[in-house]
Amino acid sequence: MCLVLTGWRAHPEYRLIVAANRDEFYTRPTESMRWWPEATGLLAGRDLGAGAALPGTWLGLARGEHRFATVTNVRGPHENRPDARSRGALLMDFLRGEASPEKFVRAAAATPDDYNGCNLMVCDLESLWWHSNRSTLTPLELRPGLHGISNGALLGSLDTLGDNEVRTDTGAPAWPKVRDGLRGLRAVIAANPGDVGGYFAVLADRTVAPDDELPATGLSPSRERAVSARFIASTLHGTRCSTVLLVREDGSYEITERSFARLGHRTGEVSFTGRVQLPA
Questions:
Q1: Rounded distance, CA 219 to CA 217, Å?
Q2: Which CATH number covers residue 257?
Q3: Is residue 280 part of a domain?
Q4: Is residue 50 part of a domain?
Q5: Total domain count, the chain
Q6: Within 13 Å and on the Cβ side, how many CA atoms surround 164?
Q7: Are 129 and 101 in contact (CB under 8 A)?
Q8: What's the rounded Cα separation, in Å, for the pair 162 and 157?
Q9: 18 in a domain, yes or no?
């Protein structure tokens, strides 16, 4: 998952709004979002490429749809360790466990070297927490508002939209895909917070960033430019799926996932609805 835009208690009728893109190599084996037969109460996509006995995931709901979690990697081509534990397995630990978001991220923060660089966002629909093992400022409980994570290296991981400004956790410039994505998210929420198509349109933007705004994460300039778009379409690596999740204050929810192949060719769509008893 390479772009996650969230509205946490950002509208009086919605507890949680998520619009997210997962970017990955097209050759990595993946199954679209579904109820898992071997993990009761888990609704998520399945990452079959990590080599674990139980597949991992990049985004999911669990335990009566009260638990939400998602993860992105932190881009660092020269620091990846093949022996590190799967970040998708970390996500599964939360989704299948019982620890509160705060307790879970604090435990993860105690063992930062178990995983390659990652941004983790976990929620029980009562609180929303962010942790990155490449930031000294986490774990952090997120306040009501709009928040975004991508593949920010080191300390530039979390971006928060204020009244007219996107701020990062460190004060560093926000990546354009996150900055402009949050502005797009805010516009949809203001106009019609239930507009699923509007959120997908925000995620579908293929505009690349100007060269003077590209981050320096160890990729070649041409590759850095290609992956600066919210939606990445290429022949080897790109946006594999887009997901929109809406959890209303009346307890009803809907989640829709669109899948894509090379060059952004759309291959399918699945949608699920339900209702949960929200915590106060």
A1: 6
A2: 3.60.60.10
A3: no
A4: yes
A5: 1
A6: 0
A7: yes
A8: 16
A9: yes
Residue 87: CB partners within 8 Å, gap ≥ 6?
Answer: 56, 71, 73, 115, 116, 118, 120
* Residue 42 token pair: 């888990």
The answer for residues whose C-beta is within 8 angstroms of residue 140's C-beta and 6 or more apart is 129, 130, 131, 158, 169
Residue 205 CB-density burial (10 A; 0-12 exposed, 13-18 middle, 19+ buried): middle
Query: How large is the average pLDDT for residues 236-254?
Result: 97
pLDDT of residue 52: 65
Q: CA-CA distance, 48 to 60, in Å (whole number)? A: 15
* 216 touches 6 (CB < 8 A): no
8 A C-beta contact, residue 186 and residue 202: no
Question: Which range marks the domain in which residue 160 is found?
Answer: 3-275
Residue 79 lies in a domain: yes
More confident residue, 11 or 219: 11
Q: Which range (29-38, 72-81, 179-188) has the least confidence? A: 72-81
Is residue 206 over pLDDT 50?
Answer: yes
Amino acid at 48: L
- Phi then psi for residue 223, to 5 deg, are -70, -40
Q: Where does residue 240 rank: exposed (0-12), middle (13-18), buried (19+ CB within 10 A)?
A: buried
User: What residue type is assigned to position 276 of the chain?
Assistant: V
What does the radius of gyration of the chain's CA atoms come to, in whole angstroms? 17
Is the pLDDT assigned to residue 155 strictly greater than 60? no
Range from 91-105, 144-158, 201-215 carrying the lowest mean pLDDT: 144-158
CB 174 within 8 A of CB 27: no
Return the amino acid letter for 23.
D
Say if strands 140-141 and 145-149 run parallel, antiparallel, or are unpaired. Answer: unpaired
Cis check: omega of the bond before 139, within 30 degrees of 0:
yes
